[in-house]
Request: fold
Amino acid sequence: MARWLTIALTGTLLGALGCDDGEPMFVPVPDAGPRVDAGPPDAGMEPGPVDGPIVRCAAPVPGRMIVAEPGDPIDAALVVRSEGSPIDEVTVNGVRVAVDAAGLVRLSHASRFGVNTLAVRATNEAGASTEQVCSFVVSPSYADESAALDGVVAMQLNPEAIDDGVATDGLDSLNDVFTAALAGGLLRETIHTQYTTGGADIKTLSCDLEINAQCIVSSEIVYLDNMPSSSFTTALTPIDGGLNFVGTARSVTLSVEVRGTERVTTTNWTTIPPAFGASVSMSSPGTITINDVTIDIDLRVFTDATTGELTAEVTQVNSVTSGAVTAVFAGLDTTTISAHPIYPGLDGSTLRSQVEAGIARHITGASGDSVRRNISDFLGERLGAVLDTLLSTIAVRTLPPSFDLPALGGGTTSYTFGSSYASVSATTSGLGFVLDTSYATSLGSSPETTLGVATLPGALGGASSAMPVANLVSERVANTVLHHEWRAGGLDGELSLRGIVAPDMIVAPDMIVAPDMIVAPDMIVAPDMIRVDSALPPIARTQDGGSLEVTLGEIHVSVPALEGGLFPDGLELTVAATATGAIVANGDDPAWGDVALTELAFGADATLSATQREYAYALAAVIAWRVTTFALNEGGPTMPLASVETTAELAPYGFATGTVLGTVTPTFTPFAGGLEAVGSFGEVP
Reply:
């Protein structure tokens, strides 16, 4: 990419650049250079300039948007005319070009994505020079500014964000949500729903003790309530297609009632064979405690083909296990059964012990598999519902539905914003979500004409960070916001030179304009009287290595007439520039700084003296710097980061509605095509 500056400096400044003959020329921006104190000019001491040539851009028309691939040659045509003195030399972007007898210049320009500029310098044989710039936009495609941006925001939850292995350090993983929900009543509610809606039974009426083909004790269990322990161990692991959940409750105690019949208390156990008595009813409240209930289930996370919504559901119950089961029914008869030589196993037992042992065998044995399976099925469905509810809230919350951004000349630009879920990918590396966004602004009565937002093709790709959560934001977002700001007139207005000139403004070593060259506004124009109008939008390109490049063009600067000033008749400038910047502060929206101009050119409506050129150049640098820093920081773009949010459905389990879980204190890094924001996963203020 060509690096150019239109420079027409004399004296010490040209000497500092290695140009001691005083001839104006194009030079590249130096990587470093001395700062020069030119001192305030004495406008009355310098002779007036000789009229220079007239330069007009014929093609491309300045301010035009062209559809072309970066690198495609663009045919350009200029008309150069000089009254009274023949043309001596014409350069475009520092390269000498041929001029035919009619004053026509034809050349081929190697295009780049974004704003392209032809910086023209024409000099006649009398030594008078004129600068002009012709800027236009080149892009392979232009997106409808009113359409949603497809797939421009992504959030990747890595294994640590899914489960950090610590359940006592707050909500900083999805598994913490599961654990907190289980402890907050989800398990109790699930079991209660399971056994009170007819969906499952603990034990239907069946025989617990049989002797000589005679059923001595039969019972059924009627569920009343349950009380899980508060001790849970859970693990959530990403798998292909979704998540694997393994959870263990240290104990689940069921409050029940046993009902049935028994012949133990009416049988004569001293006879051989025993004389079986009549069946009598039995009933007693009690508890069944199941220790170490562990379920292992797979949850699928996918996009519903019919509704397009994000969905989570249980696809497989891998295993359900339990430890020891204890049944206690204190209301049953505790009379010791008499000894019997044929049935020694009954010696010392009671009706109560026989019923309690039979129920425990039922739950721990094969016949109790349905109990364990029912608990897992119901719990799995509820956990799937929790995940479904949580993930279905994925959206951008760093931006409200409507907001205002300041405009360059004062006032504000009103925006509306929206985001929507687009797709999900689930692998062993984690869960990835892609979102669409949309922006709109309130346009004035005469917005700039446009083909749309300059757009380069290419998907976001995948996040590579090892941090718990990584977000990707396409540079299309930045260019869309910049485009809206420009179309709404937010990059136009009157500026106070005093308000935008500060010692820390032009301090980069590759700038050659010293602050004291531009801090005397009365030498240029009265305060609050510089008018800036941007005929093209700034266009940003993020770069590998952490930088951002912004191209600017067709910035029209009007300096009004001021008697006794350096420009007593006023001045009309057209400014073009390329600036680079870096992120100097992080947060939900990064701050850009270290802004340096790597390309700068201006065109003037009049022939300028050497001193006037110095100050016109300084003014062009200040305006380009101001428009760049304003567009990046004050006028946008505002970064969209995805997050999830707890809703009213989770409130019964102890979650405050509206708790946002996302990237905590993100750190941004530019890459080619976008920005990556990484950080910890947790509650976002």
